[in-house]
Amino acid sequence: MSHSSARRSILLIPALAAALALSACSPAAGTPSGDTLNVVTTTTQLADFAHQIGGDDIDLTSLLAAGASAHHFDPSPKELVALSQADVLIVNGAELEGFVDSAIEASGFSGKLITAADGIDLAEAKEITAEGEQEAQSGAPAEHDHDGHADDDGHADHDEHADHDHEHGDHDDHDHGDVNPHLWTSPRYASGMVAEIARGLAAADTAHATTYIERATDYATQLAALDTWVGEQFAGVPAEERVLVSGHDSLRYFLHDYSIAYAGAIMPSFEDNAEPSAADLDALTARIKERGVRAIFVESSMSPKLARTIAREAGVTVVDSESLYADSLGVEGSGAETYVDATIHNTRVILEAWGEPVGPLPAELGAAA
After folding, report:
1. Residue 117 — pLDDT band, cuts 50, 70, 90?
2. What DSSP line would sit under 294-309, residue for residue?
3. Whole-angstrom distance, CA of residue 253 vs CA of residue 182
4. Which residues have CB under 8 Å from 306's CB, separation 6+?
């Protein structure tokens, strides 16, 4: 594993702990409407993060079910009722959930809004997004500088968010244009999102604030171990062979963090319902052949039909019997029901498709295997 990857993982925990300590000193925003904090999340990843932090101290509802994609989600009346009764709504942000503003208005939600993306250095994310687009268009691997974007604490500019008011009235003030919204695919970014969620829950429910912070810090240890393990697995693959094509541009930050080249996606978009042109598909097939791509991977939220067609034309394998979990976590029994499980699953599927060995999990991740 590279020095920069190891440094990044080691610093995940103190960065999160420092951010949470600041939130514990902040004025309380309020208390839950009942004995238990009623929390609604948009995506399945956010639901898992909230569960890891909230435990039995929250009543949790996810608007999106396992297998669903936020790119083309429309809440039902039942889901709007759940939102109307929520004390807290947790969203990804970064323009992922186009339905949120209308859902808030339709439901009459008046609780606290937590935007998980506010725990991320979005300027860095924008640079990584642009880097990926340039790499896919030019066909040349990008140079990844893992240490160049972060402050010395390993997580850039978290403190600037500590005193922000994240009530839903300020939601539209954030400018997340040109940022790939799949922030959670990086365990490093997931740690920042967890810190933001923990800050928000602690402010909304001061009676359990210390418990939320303790759980989030414990979970950060697991995320750091995950980041280290994934980095070690890909470090053993020759650089020229670490090239990936996916269904849509859903793994941008995962690829960046582990120095995996991005040769493009079937859907030339952050969204999984875009329509590629014939020219797009021809160009992707040419890049697959030129860069020696060994497999095409399909996300769980997408149909594999187009991937199979491209794979036949390019003469490569399509991995669709075991999908990658990017937009959503897996259904019960999939082995990808939690964020940690899904990230381990994705890593294994990619490595096995490349014919590479997969190392054992560390003790901190053993229960997630």
Report:
1. very high
2. -EEEEETTS-SHHHHH
3. 8
4. 266, 276, 281
- Of residues 164 and 240, the one with the higher pLDDT is 240
Q: 240 and 124 in one domain? A: no
Confidence label for 132 from pLDDT (cuts 50, 70 and 90): confident
pTM of the shown model: 0.82
Clarify whether residues 99 and 203 are in a common domain.
Answer: yes
Asked whether 354 and 294 are in contact (CB, 8 A), the reply is: yes
Q: Which of 115, 128, 69 is nearest to 248 (CA)?
A: 69
Angle at 291 between CA 289 and CA 297, to 5 degrees: 80
What total of structural domains would you count in the chain?
Answer: 2
Quickly tell me which residue has 């021809």 as its tokens.
282
pLDDT at 131: 85
| CATH code where residue 355 lies | 3.40.50.1980
Measured between alpha carbons, how far is 122 from 127 in angstroms, rounded to an integer?
A: 9
pLDDT one-digit tens code per residue, 198-239: 999 999 999 999 999 999 999 999 999 999 999 999 999 999
Per-residue pLDDT at 1: 47
CB 259 within 8 A of CB 234: yes
Residues in the chain: 369
Q: Output the CA–CA distances (angstroms, integers) from residue 311 to 56, 247, 343, 367, in the order listed.
A: 46, 12, 24, 35
Q: Closest by alpha carbon to 8, among 148, 207, 147?
A: 147
Are 285 and 146 part of one and the same domain?
no
Domain termination site, one of 204, 228, 252 = 228
Q: Give me the pLDDT at residue 138, please.
A: 60
Q: What is the CA radius of gyration of the chain?
A: 20
Q: b/e for 319-333, b at 16 or more Cβ within 10 A?
A: bbebbbbbbbbbeee
Contact 136, 280 (CB under 8 A): no
H or E element in which residue 82 lies: helix 77-84
78: phi then psi, degrees, rounded to nearest 5 = -60, -40
Asked if residue 149 lies in contact with residue 124, where contact means CB atoms within 8 angstroms, the answer is: yes
- 40, 61 Cβ separation under 8 angstroms: yes
Q: Which amino acid is at 277?
A: S
